[in-house]
Amino acid sequence: METSLRFTGNSRSLKIHAKEKLPVNSKTHLQLHGELDTGTGAPSYFCAMIRHFFPEATTGLGVGLHYDKRQKLRCHVRGKKEFPVRSDKLVTFNIKGRCDFDQDFVQRNPKGAAEFSWSIKDFKEDQDVRIKVGYEMFDKVPYMQIRENNWTLNANMKGKWNLRFDL
User: Fold this and answer.
1) Are 33 and 18 in contact (CB under 8 A)?
2) Residue 162 buriedness (CB in 10 A; 0-12 / 13-18 / 19+)
3) SS3 of residue 73 by DSSP
4) Is the pLDDT of residue 9 over 90?
5) Which of 10, 24, 25, 53 is the most exposed place for a label (fewest CB within 10 A)?
6) pTM for the whole thing?
7) d(CA 135, CA 160)
8) From CA 59, how far away is CA 80, in angstroms rounded?
9) Confidence at residue 19, expressed as pLDDT on a 0 to 100 scale
10) Domain total for the chain?
11) Domain of 145: which CATH number?
């Protein structure tokens, strides 16, 4: 099980996030993940999603259900396509999108982004770094991510940011 601590600067809340991937076959898994808000002591959300990977096309698709304490039950669809910029695949251009729907498939919440990702192996001894710079198309906002082994900092140009530590 993957576990992380997540601090969101805007809401000033610390959350405990847990994720488990259960293999269905070599290219498909069931992903379960949820979050506990330490401020309220209550779960923030729980999600179950079937994810399938197409390695020959460097593409992934997912379909699932998401239960949120505010929005109740929602359906999720997500996809990501990766285009290697260099032959070693350390620099990629990624197109990703997702859409979640209410129970009646009336209310939609689309998200979509284009981003460059640069992975730097052994930036320092036993330290890998990944830098992402992208643009979220529906919110119309640039964003960035810096990841170093267990630490991840996400920020966008609207002032939203969060910090994650993988346990």
Assistant:
1) yes
2) middle
3) strand
4) no
5) 25
6) 0.89
7) 14
8) 6
9) 97
10) 1
11) 2.40.160.40
